[in-house]
Design a protein that fits this description.
138 residues, alpha+beta, Helix Hairpins, 4 strands, 20% strand
Protein backbone atom coordinates (compact mmCIF):
# COMPACT_ATOMS: atom_id res chain seq x y z
CA UNK A 1 0.00 0.00 0.00
CA UNK A 2 1.42 3.38 -0.96
CA UNK A 3 1.31 6.28 1.44
CA UNK A 4 0.17 9.71 0.34
CA UNK A 5 2.39 12.70 0.78
CA UNK A 6 1.20 15.45 3.07
CA UNK A 7 0.53 17.80 0.14
CA UNK A 8 -1.46 15.14 -1.74
CA UNK A 9 -3.53 14.37 1.33
CA UNK A 10 -4.26 18.07 1.94
CA UNK A 11 -5.19 18.49 -1.70
CA UNK A 12 -7.48 15.45 -1.58
CA UNK A 13 -9.23 16.74 1.53
CA UNK A 14 -9.67 20.29 0.23
CA UNK A 15 -10.34 19.61 -3.45
CA UNK A 16 -12.48 16.50 -3.23
CA UNK A 17 -13.86 15.72 0.20
CA UNK A 18 -14.79 19.27 1.21
CA UNK A 19 -16.24 20.00 -2.24
CA UNK A 20 -18.32 16.82 -2.07
CA UNK A 21 -19.54 17.88 1.37
CA UNK A 22 -20.58 21.31 0.03
CA UNK A 23 -22.47 19.67 -2.81
CA UNK A 24 -24.25 17.28 -0.41
CA UNK A 25 -25.21 20.19 1.84
CA UNK A 26 -26.56 22.15 -1.14
CA UNK A 27 -28.72 19.19 -2.18
CA UNK A 28 -29.90 18.76 1.41
CA UNK A 29 -30.85 22.45 1.60
CA UNK A 30 -32.84 22.12 -1.63
CA UNK A 31 -34.74 19.09 -0.27
CA UNK A 32 -35.48 20.93 2.97
CA UNK A 33 -36.70 23.94 1.01
CA UNK A 34 -39.02 21.73 -1.05
CA UNK A 35 -40.37 20.12 2.13
CA UNK A 36 -41.09 23.57 3.59
CA UNK A 37 -42.89 24.64 0.40
CA UNK A 38 -45.10 21.54 0.46
CA UNK A 39 -45.85 22.04 4.16
CA UNK A 40 -46.81 25.62 3.40
CA UNK A 41 -49.10 24.44 0.60
CA UNK A 42 -50.63 21.86 2.94
CA UNK A 43 -51.40 24.58 5.49
CA UNK A 44 -52.87 26.80 2.77
CA UNK A 45 -55.17 23.97 1.66
CA UNK A 46 -56.26 23.44 5.26
CA UNK A 47 -57.21 27.13 5.52
CA UNK A 48 -59.08 26.97 2.21
CA UNK A 49 -61.02 23.90 3.34
CA UNK A 50 -61.95 25.30 6.72
CA UNK A 51 -62.53 29.02 6.15
CA UNK A 52 -62.70 29.92 2.49
CA UNK A 53 -65.36 27.69 0.94
CA UNK A 54 -67.12 30.67 -0.67
CA UNK A 55 -64.06 31.98 -2.49
CA UNK A 56 -61.33 34.49 -1.74
CA UNK A 57 -59.12 37.18 -3.24
CA UNK A 58 -55.37 36.77 -3.60
CA UNK A 59 -52.33 38.53 -5.02
CA UNK A 60 -50.85 36.48 -7.88
CA UNK A 61 -47.30 36.89 -9.16
CA UNK A 62 -47.57 37.29 -12.94
CA UNK A 63 -43.80 37.49 -13.45
CA UNK A 64 -40.91 39.76 -12.53
CA UNK A 65 -42.45 40.28 -9.09
CA UNK A 66 -45.47 42.01 -10.62
CA UNK A 67 -48.67 41.11 -8.83
CA UNK A 68 -52.33 41.22 -9.83
CA UNK A 69 -55.39 40.71 -7.70
CA UNK A 70 -57.21 37.49 -8.49
CA UNK A 71 -60.57 36.30 -7.25
CA UNK A 72 -61.11 32.59 -6.71
CA UNK A 73 -64.83 31.93 -6.68
CA UNK A 74 -64.83 28.14 -6.38
CA UNK A 75 -61.81 26.80 -4.46
CA UNK A 76 -62.53 23.10 -5.02
CA UNK A 77 -59.43 22.39 -7.15
CA UNK A 78 -55.82 23.52 -7.06
CA UNK A 79 -52.85 23.34 -9.43
CA UNK A 80 -49.82 21.60 -7.91
CA UNK A 81 -46.32 21.45 -9.34
CA UNK A 82 -45.64 17.72 -9.60
CA UNK A 83 -42.12 18.05 -11.01
CA UNK A 84 -40.19 18.97 -14.16
CA UNK A 85 -42.27 22.15 -14.56
CA UNK A 86 -45.52 20.20 -14.88
CA UNK A 87 -48.61 21.30 -12.97
CA UNK A 88 -51.58 19.05 -12.32
CA UNK A 89 -55.11 19.98 -11.35
CA UNK A 90 -56.13 18.23 -8.11
CA UNK A 91 -59.15 18.41 -5.87
CA UNK A 92 -58.14 19.65 -2.43
CA UNK A 93 -58.30 16.13 -0.99
CA UNK A 94 -56.23 14.68 -3.85
CA UNK A 95 -53.72 17.49 -3.43
CA UNK A 96 -53.34 16.68 0.28
CA UNK A 97 -52.74 13.01 -0.55
CA UNK A 98 -50.11 13.93 -3.15
CA UNK A 99 -48.46 16.46 -0.82
CA UNK A 100 -48.23 13.96 2.05
CA UNK A 101 -46.67 11.40 -0.30
CA UNK A 102 -44.22 13.97 -1.72
CA UNK A 103 -43.20 15.10 1.78
CA UNK A 104 -42.46 11.49 2.80
CA UNK A 105 -40.34 10.96 -0.33
CA UNK A 106 -38.43 14.22 0.19
CA UNK A 107 -37.83 13.41 3.88
CA UNK A 108 -36.37 10.02 2.93
CA UNK A 109 -34.13 11.68 0.32
CA UNK A 110 -33.04 14.26 2.91
CA UNK A 111 -32.23 11.49 5.39
CA UNK A 112 -30.03 9.73 2.81
CA UNK A 113 -28.26 13.02 2.10
CA UNK A 114 -27.74 13.61 5.85
CA UNK A 115 -26.19 10.15 6.22
CA UNK A 116 -23.90 10.74 3.24
CA UNK A 117 -22.92 14.10 4.72
CA UNK A 118 -22.05 12.45 8.03
CA UNK A 119 -19.89 9.89 6.22
CA UNK A 120 -18.13 12.63 4.27
CA UNK A 121 -17.44 14.58 7.49
CA UNK A 122 -15.99 11.41 9.02
CA UNK A 123 -13.74 10.98 5.97
CA UNK A 124 -12.54 14.58 6.32
CA UNK A 125 -11.87 14.08 10.02
CA UNK A 126 -9.96 10.88 9.31
CA UNK A 127 -7.88 12.67 6.68
CA UNK A 128 -7.10 15.50 9.09
CA UNK A 129 -6.09 12.99 11.77
CA UNK A 130 -3.77 11.34 9.25
CA UNK A 131 -2.25 14.74 8.49
CA UNK A 132 -1.74 15.33 12.20
CA UNK A 133 -0.01 11.98 12.57
CA UNK A 134 2.23 12.67 9.58
CA UNK A 135 3.33 16.00 11.01
CA UNK A 136 4.10 14.42 14.38
CA UNK A 137 6.28 11.72 12.81
CA UNK A 138 8.48 14.12 10.82
Amino acid sequence: MTSMSQENLESFINDYLKEDLKELENHLNLRNQEIMEFLQLKNTIAVIQSDLNNGFKAQMNVGNNMFMEAKVEDPKTILVLIGKGIYMDFTLEEALTFINFKIRVLEKEAEVLREESIKKKADIKLGLLCLLEKTKLY
